[in-house]
UniProtKB/TrEMBL annotation:
This protein's UniProt keywords: Heme, Iron, Metal-binding, Signal
MF terms in GO: electron transfer activity; heme binding; iron ion binding
PTMs per UniProt: Binds 1 heme c group covalently per subunit.
Keyword Nucleus among record annotations: no
Cellular compartments per GO CC: periplasmic space
Highest taxon in the source lineage: Bacteria
Ranges of residues in domain Cytochrome c: 64-152
High-level lineage: Bacteria, Pseudomonadati, Pseudomonadota, Betaproteobacteria, Nitrosomonadales
Xref: Gene3D superfamilies: Cytochrome c-like domain (1.10.760.10)
Range of residues in the leader sequence: 1-23
Residues annotated to bind heme c: C78, C81, H82
Protein's name in the database: C-type cytochrome
Membrane-spanning parts: none
Length: 160
């Protein structure tokens, strides 16, 4: 019996792999762990779709994406609170080793914190700096995170 269950599960997994179907990650609010619902249409690039499927940031280490991420970081004035490289200023440091929110050690966690906001009131999409219909897009946020990770001296990419 167990053998048949295993074979069925393996067959379903192989079918999903062959058709390109992938389970999506669940995004959770930093404040209370509630589910963050983001319109799937906003994940409109291959990189953002990969992130939604895996929680891994494909832009980590990509020099072109890091350069664009830096521009976006400056455009949205992240630098005013988090410093020129995310080292922290008025707001908390983003590069580690001591994250205000432990989940930010992962790219998924940092995405959740930036997108939905924090107890301090900052929020890219959810509550603060950028209106939900006119702010940063998921693909741009992944580039910002790649820029932040490029400045880290703790030896982590967030994709571990």
């Amino acid at each position: 019996m167990l053998g048949n269950t295993f074979k069925s599960a393996l067959l379903v997994s192989l079918m999903a792999f062959a058709t390109g179907a992938m389970a999506e990650i669940t995004l959770s609010a930093t404040q209370d762990g509630s589910t963050i619902n983001i319109d799937k249409a906003l994940f409109d690039t291959d990189a953002s779709k990969e992130f939604l499927a895996t929680g891994k940031n494909p832009y980590i280490g990509n020099e072109e994406a890091i350069k664009k991420g830096k521009k976006i970081f400056n455009l949205y004035s992240c630098v005013a609170c988090h410093g020129g490289k995310g080292e922290g200023a008025v707001g908390p440091g983003l590069i580690g080793a001591n994250f205000r929110y432990a989940k930010n050690v992962t790219n998924k966690g940092m995405f959740e914190t930036i997108w939905h906001g924090t107890n301090g009131g900052m929020g890219a999409k959810g509550f603060g700096l950028m209106a939900p219909d006119d702010g940063i897009k998921p693909d741009e946020l992944l580039k910002v995170i790649a820029f932040i990770r490029s400045n880290s001296n703790v030896g982590t990419t967030g994709n571990e």
